[in-house]
């Protein structure tokens, strides 16, 4: 028996204990250990077996780090069948998560006990896969197709009590899992329970309406992602064939998906989610304590930040300039919390709101451990706020700015404690969006950075470390790929063609729809701000300035690149004369959707490579995570840097150089990209070198 699985006895009961930290993943040693344990159980005089996990959970699923490597026997479907075929009864005693393959092992057992706090689910689609060890065939036999269609395409999970309700488990218990497992096993022995094989249950009824509804929903939701629809197909197989044929077909779909770039993209994203917060310079650095947060400014952003903190259980003092503005901020936050209640994210609105204090005097921040400024995006205003914070905050408190592009080093000069100053760039709506760019300035202390990462975790956000430059990681790259879109307009593409091509690539919105949503006045103001320092070779979208002067600011005025009825837009062709004027006598051409996507993505990757080369982002993976969580880049593509590796860096660089012939300013190749191509390396190689 491997060390990863122990076989113990307690009277008549065999206990098969999985001990493979940190998450009891079903790697080769666990699969082999389970197989051998079942063999031993068959041969000894134990009358019933209980499978359980050691540590904080039952089983965290297949070992994801084995995906993409040659599979080794015993395969998981065979392990589950081996358990199911046992001549003596087998119980799964589940505490904590039982996910994917972990849930499938439980379904292979004859009886299931879930401890309160357990979660059973199938997250495979989040990795570009479907359940591959009988889950799609066994679950609908236990619960009917409805719950399986709710759970599998979404990669969802259910609690112990929900699992009991839908028939996924037989009993819910509290206390110690080993004791509860033994007690259940003894009850089953007393009742002379026999093996009860899920695979032997009759085929679930086919419900055409449920399948049609699930397919309609996921065709709309998945935007090019294949796994959710494949999961629906697998559940349907269970309704049409016998069990053994169903298992084979499920495995075929699973193995097909295993070969797809989508699977590789999702797994890249899974591991990056964890790697992004591992920074060598923070090893051994303890974060400061945060028990009270101050927020300065109660506009959309400040109210969103306050909401995020309140939802995480942090008391907030929000400072506004007068009573009316403070009242308005409270109303916005109350609305945000109401929406959180509706989405099932919050139970006690009033209790949460009781932790909000809205004031007009900075003195109320004397006790705050962290103050986050979210006032008007202007250097003078920000510096003034920071100077005032410097006078009221206690020693050791952190002074954070939510600026989205301003120089954090300069902001820090208005305080006497630049080591305590950091950028915390939230994305709007701040209580919903997952990304937090942590902008580390020249003098920011390491424990201040560590505190920012700890705060992100508490707020259930993904933090990415960024250096100081105009726009940091995300908005700097955004400005460049938006620039590529504007140049394509000048060369003959329409905004609507560009939006359609970008959506076909998998983003939820194209750049012009996004502009309409954010408000075209924002772009106008950015252009104004940059006008003085703009390189004369740069391109200005003069049509967008004209739209601003017309008062066509996007959704909020009902007109922008689209004309809106509610939130639905149709192309606003009245902007075409402005575009024609900007094009002047430039030669015009047409673009295919693929050409649009390639230019847009190439601009994104080229700028991202500059951002990495300059050390603004630590690694290519930090860019991938930023674009995924802050800019709607499709998760199943892993991120722009993974996309670039798939496309091949030499070909991408060759395209960039070809475009540079007519526009050398915009398409100047990144030195890092050139270096990687010269050395025959990829962004993935860089990630490996820089991960501790
Ligand atoms: N295979 C391999 N490694 C895994 C893993 C898996 N199924 N699940 C987690 N890990 C690793 C993580 O990468 C992390 O490694 P690190 O410490 O080197 O970064 C470590 O285990 C801890 O994971 P983490 O997610 O930080 O722990 P958690 O306690 O917050 O959450 C889980 C535990 C199981 C809920 C969570 O890890 C999870 O959802 N895992 C994926 C489950 C899954 O998709 N299984 C289906 C596979 S088909």
Describe the structure.
With 692 residues, this protein is an alpha/beta fold. The chain folds into 3 domains: 5-259, 2-enoyl-CoA Hydratase, Chain A, domain 1; 290-466, NAD(P)-binding Rossmann-like Domain (Rossmann fold, 3-Layer(aba) Sandwich), CATH 3.40.50; 474-689, N-(1-d-carboxylethyl)-l-norvaline Dehydrogenase, domain 2 (Orthogonal Bundle), CATH 1.10.1040. Helices cover 48% and strands 12% of the residues. α11 (261-275) crosses α25 (620-630) and α18 (474-491) packs antiparallel against α24. The longest helix is centred in the last third of the chain and has 21 residues, at 593-613. The two termini are 33 Å apart. Bound molecules: coenzyme A (COA). The site of coenzyme A (COA) has 17 residues, from β5.
What's the short story on this structure?
This protein has 692 residues and is α/β, with parallel strands linked by helices. 48% of the residues lie in helices and 12% in strands.
- How would you characterize the largest beta sheet? 8 strands, mixed
% residues in beta strands: 5-15%
Estimate percent helicity: 40-55%
> How far apart are the first and last residues' alpha carbons, in Å?
33 Å
Total number of beta strands: 19
- CATH architecture annotation of the largest domain: Alpha-Beta Complex
Instruction: List all distinct small molecules, including ions and cofactors, that are bound in this structure.
Output: coenzyme A
In the CATH scheme, the class of the largest domain would be Alpha Beta
Q: What integer is the average pLDDT? A: 96
Q: Write down the overall geometry.
A: globular
Rg, alpha carbons? 28 Å
| Count of helix runs | 29
The CATH superfamily of the largest domain bears the name: 2-enoyl-CoA Hydratase, Chain A, domain 1
Structural class: alpha/beta
């Amino acid at each position: 028996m491997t060390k990863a699985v122990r076989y113990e006895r307690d009277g008549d009961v065999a206990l098969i204990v999985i001990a493979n930290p940190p998450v009891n993943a079903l790697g080769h040693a666990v699969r082999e250990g389970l197989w051998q344990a079942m063999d031993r159980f068959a041969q000894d005089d134990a009358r019933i077996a209980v499978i359980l996990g050691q540590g904080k959970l039952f089983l965290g699923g297949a070992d994801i780090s084995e995906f993409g490597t040659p599979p080794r026997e015993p395969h998981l479907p065979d392990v589950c069948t081996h358990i199911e075929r046992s001549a003596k009864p087998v119980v799964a005693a589940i505490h904590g998560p039982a996910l994917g393959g972990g849930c499938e092992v439980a379904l292979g057992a004859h009886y299931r006990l879930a401890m309160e706090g357990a979660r059973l689910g199938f997250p495979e689609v989040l990795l570009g896969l479907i359940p591959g060890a009988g889950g799609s065939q066994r679950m609908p036999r236990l619960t009917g197709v409805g719950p399986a269609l709710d759970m599998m395409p979404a990669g969802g999970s259910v609690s112990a009590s929900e699992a009991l309700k839908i028939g996924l488990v037989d009993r819910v218990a509290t206390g110690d899992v080993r004791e509860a497992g033994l007690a259940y096993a003894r009850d089953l022995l007393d009742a002379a329970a026999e093996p009860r094989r899920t695979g032997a249950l009759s085929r679930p009824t086919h419900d055409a309406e449920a399948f049609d509804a699930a397919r309609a929903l996921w065709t709309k939701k998945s935007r090019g992602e294949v796994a959710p629809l494949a999961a629906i197909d697998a559940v349907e197989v269970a309704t049409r064939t016998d069990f053994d044929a169903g298992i084979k077909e499920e495995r075929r779909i699973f193995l097909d998906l295993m070969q797809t770039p989508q699977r590789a993209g999702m797994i890249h994203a899974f591991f990056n989610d964890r790697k992004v917060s591992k920074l060598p310079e923070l090893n051994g650095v303890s974060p400061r304590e945060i028990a009270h947060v101050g927020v300065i400014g109660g506009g959309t952003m400040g109210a969103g930040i306050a909401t995020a903190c309140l939802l995480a259980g942090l008391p907030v003092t929000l400072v506004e300039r007068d009573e009316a503005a403070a009242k308005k901020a409270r109303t916005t936050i109350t609305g945000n919390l109401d929406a959180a209640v509706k989405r099932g994210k919050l139970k006690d609105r009033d209790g949460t709101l009781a932790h909000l204090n809205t004031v007009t005097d900075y003195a109320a921040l004397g006790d705050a451990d962290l103050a986050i400024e979210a006032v008007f995006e202007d250097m003078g205003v920000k510096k003034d706020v920071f100077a005032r914070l410097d006078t009221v905050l206690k020693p050791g408190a952190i002074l954070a700015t939510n600026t989205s592009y301003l120089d954090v080093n300069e902001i820090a000069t208005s305080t006497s404690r630049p080591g305590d100053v950091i950028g915390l760039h939230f994305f709007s709506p701040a209580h919903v969006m997952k990304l937090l760019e942590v902008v580390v300035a020249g003098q920011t202390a390491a424990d201040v950075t560590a505190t920012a990462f700890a705060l992100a975790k508490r707020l259930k956000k993904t933090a990415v470390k960024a250096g100081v430059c105009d726009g940091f990681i995300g908005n700097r790259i955004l400005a460049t790929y938006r620039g590529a879109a504007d140049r394509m307009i000048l060369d003959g593409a329409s905004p609507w063609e560009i939006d359609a091509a970008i959506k076909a690539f998998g983003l939820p919105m194209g750049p012009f729809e996004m502009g309409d949503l954010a408000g075209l006045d924002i772009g106008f103001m950015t252009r104004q701000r940059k006008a003085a320092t703009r390189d004369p070779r740069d391109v200005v979208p003069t049509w967008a300035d004209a739209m601003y002067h017309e008062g066509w600011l996007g959704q909020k005025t009902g007109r922008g690149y689209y004309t809106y009825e509610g939130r639905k837009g149709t192309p606003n062709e009245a902007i075409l004369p402005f575009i024609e004027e900007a094009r002047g006598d430039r030669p015009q051409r047409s673009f295919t959707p693929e050409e649009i996507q390639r230019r847009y993505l190439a601009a994104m990757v080229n700028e991202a490579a500059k951002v990495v080369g300059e050390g603004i982002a630590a690694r290519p993976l930090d860019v991938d995570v930023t674009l995924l969580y802050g800019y709607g880049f499709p998760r199943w593509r892993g991120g722009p840097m993974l996309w670039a590796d798939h496309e091949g860096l030499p070909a991408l660089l060759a395209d960039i150089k070809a475009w540079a012939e007519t526009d050398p300013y915009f398409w100047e190749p990144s030195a890092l990209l050139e270096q990687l191509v010269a050395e025959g390396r990829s962004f993935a190689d860089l990630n490996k070198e820089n991960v501790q």
